[in-house]
Amino acid sequence: MNQLNKMAKNFKSESKITGWTKMRLLDKYGNAKPMFQENFLWRLFKKYFSLDLQIPFLFGNWTTSVIKRNTVTTIGKQISAQQVGGTTSAPVTAIALGVGTPSATALGSESTTNGGSRGAATVSNQTTTLTGDTERWVKTFTFSGVLVLIEEGLFDNNTSGGNMLASQTFSAVTTANTDTLQITHNVKYA
Amino acid sequence: MEQKYKLGDKVKFMNDADSLAGVIVSFSYDASIKSFRYSFTSKAFDVDSNSMIEGIKTCLEAELLPVESAK
């Protein structure tokens, strides 16, 4: 362990980056459509067997508002640090959806059709525990056809590529023409 | 090098509806990608707080479209 690592270990103040996402699927009349809120058992089966078992009570429950904890990537921690010092000029501005399984750096299969394309989100600073400790990205997708979405991520590029700050997988959300999906993605620095 | 949009111009992200347009509040030049980067006001319905929130959107010059203000 070098001198810098020893010094860093001695600092008492620690900071964690955590995130979560809230999603709502609405039809063209604004009525909320049911989505599957997964539990620990669902996550276990998804991780080890790649199964999306939408069995109520055993693997979760049907609800109109799903909350999901996300994974902050290693590159996400790097670009967060770079923003503090200004060594990057590209803020995280976009929300993307996909139909695959996210890797450490990108979505597995990013959606680019039927209204599911990546786009600029409305970003604001919010308070969760400490004043202004949370950054919030909000975007509403309006679909023009069927998509079976299972992943979502935050990026520093509004159109393609870029660095992924955080991602999440969720139980399949099937969209129809004129449906809207409201996504609120929070990342807390505290 | 001169920017296409000025402070106060009404713009929107290219894939968004006109109703999601906002007013430019700041811009900077990113030499690494040779493009201006703009921040503009944006409102959105926030499911988390069940209310409208005011935030910003940040886009590159090529990702923006001008929106005519209603006279």
The gist of it:
Chain A is of the alpha+beta class. Chain A has helices at 3-10, 40-49, 74-85, and strands at 17-26, 32-33, 35-38, 60-63, 66-69, 71-72, 94-98, 119-120, 122-126, 134-142, 147-155, 164-175, 180-189.
Structure commentary:
- The complex is a heterodimer of chains A (190) and B (71).
- Chain A has 190 residues and is of the alpha+beta class.
- Chain A has three helices and 13 strands.
- In chain A, strands 1, 2, 5, 9, 10 and 13 form a six-stranded antiparallel β-sheet that branches. Chain A has a five-stranded antiparallel β-sheet with strand order 6-12-11-7-8. Chain A has a two-stranded antiparallel sheet with strand order 3-4.
- The model of chain A has no long low-confidence stretch (mean pLDDT 91).
- A five-stranded antiparallel β-sheet of chain B has the order 4-3-2-1-5, with no helix packed on it.
- Chain B is mostly beta strands and 71 residues long.
- Chain B contains no helices and five strands.
- Helices cover 0% and strands 54% of the residues of chain B.
- The A-B interface holds A 22-24, 65, 89-91, 93, 117, 119-124, 126, 136, 138-140, 158-159, 182-184, 186 and B 13, 15-16, 28, 30, 32, 37, 42-49, 53-60, 63.
List the helices and strands and how they pair.
The complex is a heterodimer of chains A (190) and B (71).
Chain A: H1 3-10, E1 17-26, E2 32-33, E3 35-38, H2 40-49, E4 60-63, E5 66-69, E6 71-72, H3 74-85, E7 94-98, E8 119-120, E9 122-126, E10 134-142, E11 147-155, E12 164-175, E13 180-189
Chain B: E1 10-13, E2 22-30, E3 35-46, E4 51-60, E5 64-66
Antiparallel strand pairs in B: 1-2, 1-5, 2-3, 3-4
